[in-house]
């Protein structure tokens, strides 16, 4: 199966997650599932954009000018007097501009006196005055449904008095590794054993994709152990496993997934990451997608990037799930199997418009991903790409368009 067809089937097969009500500080990166409308003007009153003196513009059209100081307005206070001809009122940033005044002279353009102030610079009308409704008007849509909430949108919600928001929930994703040869990162190694890196890297990739990883243990190579692990993990919104998806004597993912739910099993024409299992389990009325990724650490992370990350973003209500792409000039020749689509780990230099590989590209060489900031997408049908060619580059360090 081709990679694009596999991704299309995955995106069509993952269920959307429900919306939940959360505190806005917990909503960062989530998709808003309501329309938020301003209940009042923001700001609600004219206020000063800087520390200085509130004046009438006609009194400071020429400089120097001397004005009588009739009071002071601090932020959070209301003025009790009107500014008349030849008068000024000291004002702090954010304080309401008093009636009669239409301009604020910054303190740096005065002698900063508290009785009679000298204005040293002519100041045009309206300088440093922020008007009511300048940011938002009452009844105006502040943040539209479907918006991915960033820091600025969280601030907008707070500015209209919203301490909570309705968002598509953050998926809780169970992640575990399979294999008798695996031990935890801190455990000593016996002959024939290797440390489990996949749980740690995949849990981190899940977090980076906006999910909440539910990190489980190492599942041994037995049908009973895998069956029990999948049943327990079905309490999550999705399941990501690594290992056990090929066709070896101890690869049980396909038959156990078929027993407990439904499965599509592909030998996708890509490298790294040819074997990939995708299906679903049922937990009552809930559909729980299962992604069985390859055991080799590079294959696991690359297939996560290509297939799992977009699926999780779609489950979270994202319309745009694909990383940005660009074209770049290849700095070195790359040989590949002509029938496979290859995703080489690369270093993209945007200023030069070039890309090169990170070095050896074996599916067990995790450093090839650690050094990379992109994937070089080399299509089927060719066995060699020459230096100087323009190639497709997936910018894995840049988020999806909003």
Keywords:
402 residues; alpha/beta; Molybdenum Cofactor Biosythetic Enzyme, Chain A; Molybdopterin biosynthesis moea protein, domain 2; Molybdopterin biosynthesis moeA protein, domain 3; six-stranded mixed sheet; five-stranded mixed sheet; 27 strands
Structure description:
By secondary structure, the protein is of the alpha/beta class. The chain has four domains: 161 residues, 3-Layer(aba) Sandwich (Molybdenum Cofactor Biosythetic Enzyme, Chain A); 59 residues, Molybdopterin biosynthesis moea protein, domain 2; 84 residues, Molybdopterin biosynthesis moea protein, domain 3 (Molybdopterin biosynthesis moeA protein, domain 3, Beta Complex); 70 residues, MoeA, C-terminal, domain IV (Beta-clip, Beta Barrel), CATH 2.40.340. Helix content is 18%, strand content 32%. It contains seven helices and 27 strands. The strands form eight sheets. The chain has a six-stranded mixed beta sheet with strand order 15-12-16-20-19-17, sandwiched between helices. A hairpin with a 4-residue loop joins strand 23 and strand 24. Helix 1 crosses helix 6 and helix 4 packs across helix 5. 38% of the residues are buried. The model has no long low-confidence stretch (mean pLDDT 94).
Terminal CA distance reads 30 Å
- How much of the sequence lies in strands comes to 25-35%
CATH class of the largest domain: Alpha Beta
Q: Return the CATH topology of the largest domain.
A: Molybdenum Cofactor Biosythetic Enzyme, Chain A
- What would you report as the Rg, rounded to the nearest angstrom? 30 Å
Helical residue percent band: 10-25%
Q: What is the number of independent domains?
A: 4
Largest sheet: 6 strands, mixed
Question: Unreliable segments (pLDDT under 50, ≥5 consecutive)?
Answer: none
Q: What's the pLDDT, averaged over the residues? A: 94
Query: Got a strand count?
Result: 27
Specify the number of helices: 7
CATH architecture heading of the largest domain: 3-Layer(aba) Sandwich
What is the H level of CATH, i.e. the homologous superfamily of the largest domain? MoaB/Mog-like domain
Oligomer: single chain
How do the strands of the widest beta sheet line up side by side?
Answer: 15-12-16-20-19-17
User: Which structural class should the secondary elements be placed in?
Assistant: alpha/beta
* 3D shape: elongated
């Amino acid at each position: 199966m081709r990679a694009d067809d596999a991704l299309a089937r995955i995106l069509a097969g993952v269920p959307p997650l429900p919306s939940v009500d959360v505190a806005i500080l917990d909503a960062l990166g989530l998709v808003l599932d309501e329309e938020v409308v301003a209940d009042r003007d923001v700001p609600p009153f004219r206020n000063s954009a800087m520390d200085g003196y509130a004046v009438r513009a006609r009194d400071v059209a020429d400089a120097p000018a001397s004005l009588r100081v009739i009071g002071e307005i601090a932020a959070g206070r209301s003025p009790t007097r009107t500014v008349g001809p030849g008068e000024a009122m000291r004002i702090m940033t954010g304080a309401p501009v008093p009636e009669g005044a239409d301009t604020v002279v910054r303190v740096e353009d005065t002698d900063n006196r508290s009785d009679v102030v000298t204005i040293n610079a002519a100041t045009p009308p309206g300088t440093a005055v922020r008007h009511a409704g300048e940011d938002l008007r009452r009844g105006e849509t502040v943040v539209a449904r479907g918006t991915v909430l960033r820091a600025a949108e969280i601030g907008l919600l707070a500015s209209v008095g919203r301490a909570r928001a309705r968002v598509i929930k953050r998926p809780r994703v169970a992640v575990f590794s399979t294999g008798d040869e695996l031990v935890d990162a801190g455990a000593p190694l016996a002959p024939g054993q290797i440390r489990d890196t996949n749980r740690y890297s995949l849990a981190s990739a899940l977090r980076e994709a906006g999910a909440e990883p539910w990190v489980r243990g190492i599942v041994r190579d037995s049908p009973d152990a895998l069956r029990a692990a999948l049943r327990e993990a079905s309490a999550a919104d999705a399941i990501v496993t690594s290992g056990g998806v090929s066709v070896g004597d101890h690869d049980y993912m396909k038959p156990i997934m078929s027993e407990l739910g439904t499965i599509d099993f592909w030998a996708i024409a890509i490298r790294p990451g040819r074997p990939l299992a995708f299906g679903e389990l049922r937990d009552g009325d809930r559909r729980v997608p299962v992604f069985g990724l390859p055991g080799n650490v590079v294959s696991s992370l690359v297939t996560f990037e290509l297939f799992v990350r977009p699926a999780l973003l779609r489950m979270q209500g994202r319309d745009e799930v694909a990383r940005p792409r660009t074209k770049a000039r290849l700095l070195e020749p790359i040989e590949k199997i002509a029938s496979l689509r290859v995703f080489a780990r690369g270093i993209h230099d945007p200023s030069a418009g070039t890309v090169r590989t990170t070095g050896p590209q074996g599916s067990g060489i995790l450093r090839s991903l650690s050094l990379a900031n992109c994937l070089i997408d080399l299509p089927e049908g060719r066995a060699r790409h020459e230096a100087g060619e323009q190639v497709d580059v997936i910018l894995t360090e840049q988020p999806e368009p909003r």
